[in-house]
Amino acid sequence: MHRGGTIPVHFFGAVGYGYKSLLINIYGTGKSGAFTQTDYLGQVLKPYIQDFLAAFAAVLGPGKTPQFMEDGNSAHGHKTTSNICATWRTSMGITLFPHPAVSPDMNPIEKCWRRIKQALHRRLRQPTTEVQMVVAVLEEWDKIPQEWINGLIEQQDFWVHDLIKRCGWSTAN
User: What CATH number is associated with residue 78?
Assistant: First the structure.
């Protein structure tokens, strides 16, 4: 996320029915500050994902397994099964929820990111430094109500059927 002349900032957050994680600021070591698979593994997956999944499981209740979904960012390592992120997820028994790679309607977190970007755009005083941007994004994340996130999750069935209809797929495929 970035506004105006600020340096882009990167975040990881997780949402689910009855759950919103802390927002994690990721510091990229790649070209122009991009975050890499190594950054994602070391700053998000290893220190946080097991706790996130345990928190989801507690919300879901006994006998239900949380599903982990990532967006299409290349740092998540979806293109091969031998990259460091995929290898680590496999070693930890974490499977990803299957969904089309470029389908923001299928991932509720994308609607959260859009809400934050719109809120940043509406601010009277725009962040002009990286620190201000990080603080502003964290403030906007905290303002997202859990009830709104729950509504996104409840709408998933609609989005799945709508995507199938728009793309002309049949449920037999």
Answer: 3.30.420.10
- The range of the structural domain enclosing residue 85 comes to 10-167
**CA distances from residue 130 to 5, 7, 13, 29, 35 in whole angstroms, order as listed:** 10, 6, 19, 15, 15
Q: How do residues 34-53 score in pLDDT, each as one tens digit?
A: 889 999 999 999 998 888 88
Confidence of residue 102 (pLDDT cuts 50, 70, 90): low
The pLDDT value recorded for residue 157 is: 72
Q: pTM higher than 0.85, yes or no?
A: no
- For residue 5, being part of any structural domain is answered with no
Q: What is the largest CA-CA distance in the chain?
A: 52
Q: How many domains does the chain have?
A: 1
Residue 1 belongs to some domain of the structure: no
Q: Is 25 helix (H, G, I), strand (E, B) or coil?
A: strand
Q: Is the dihedral of CA 122, 127, 132, 133 positive or negative?
A: positive
Compute CA 41 distance to the chain's CA centroid, rounded to the nearest angstrom.
Answer: 14
Pull the structure tokens for residue 111.
Answer: 């609607």
Residue 3, in any domain of the structure: no
Bridge partners, 16 (sequence order): 19
Classify residue 172: in a domain, yes or no.
no
